[in-house]
Amino acid sequence: MNKRILIPTDFSKNALNATRYALDLYAKQNCDFYFLNVFHLDSYTTNTLIMPEPGSAEYDSTKAASEESFTKLLEMLELHNDNPKHTYHTTATLNYLSVAIEELIAKKDIDLVVMGTKGATGAKGVIFGSNTVKTMEKITQCPVLAVPENVRFSPLKEVVFPTDFKLSYKRKEMDYLIDIVRMHNAAIRVLHISKNETLSKTQEENKQLLEDILSTVECTFHNLKNIDVAQGVTTFVASRNSDMIAFINKKHFFFGSVFSKPLVKEIGYDATTPILALH
């Protein structure tokens, strides 16, 4: 069965870069790529009670402009990324981004969402645009991959998986990470950052469970002590030139402590590592 990958796009350079990264990441796989553009109407705000309907001049012209942008995008992809294994589909809709994404995930049984980390505004100093952050937090039906704007794809060698071993793991949660690693014959580097010298009994059991789950791929375990979590992850990834960071977004635990302001402050706006949020 083909992989089904959803790529929300605002037709910015950053969104195009995320698209190219996804196409290269899955270059050897049979895939259906679903491109989603959520357009907005200037006359409509959340304070307006009446949602513009198809048939109104503004709605039709805005949707037509979105579809025209899709035509240009597909022409560009066929010129530079012509891959017989890949099929492209487009959807232009007037909706809230997270709602539109959730509807398409359910309708098309999407396996992965891939997004650029900045919106069209490209605010300096902001790695994760608000739309990307909200999507990574709200979308729980499938993994979300966020691709920084200056990252160019290179074959995966290793993926860093930060964890505190405090929560148990399920094989289903790790399936997608294992799948990506196998696809590129890469390795997983499990990173534990702690203040304590020893793990608790529960942490030891969870670590053993993780070892069992990851036993089918190359995997090593690493420890860093007495360092800020965000700084530790950033330093570890930079020192090894790792290709991706993956984490399980359980109850927003890791998201709040690592992938919001602390990490943004640590790595500034020169982010170089894609982030895969598993659920």
UniProtKB/TrEMBL annotation:
Record-linked InterPro entries: Rossmann-like_a/b/a_fold, Universal_stress_UspA, UspA
Listed SUPFAM superfamilies: Adenine nucleotide alpha hydrolases-like
Superkingdom of origin organism: Bacteria
UniProt cross-references to Pfam families, sorted A to Z: Usp
Domain UspA: 1-148
Record family assignment: Belongs to the universal stress protein A family.
Protein's recorded name: Nucleotide-binding universal stress protein, UspA family
Organism: Cellulophaga tyrosinoxydans
Taxonomic lineage: Bacteria, Pseudomonadati, Bacteroidota, Flavobacteriia, Flavobacteriales
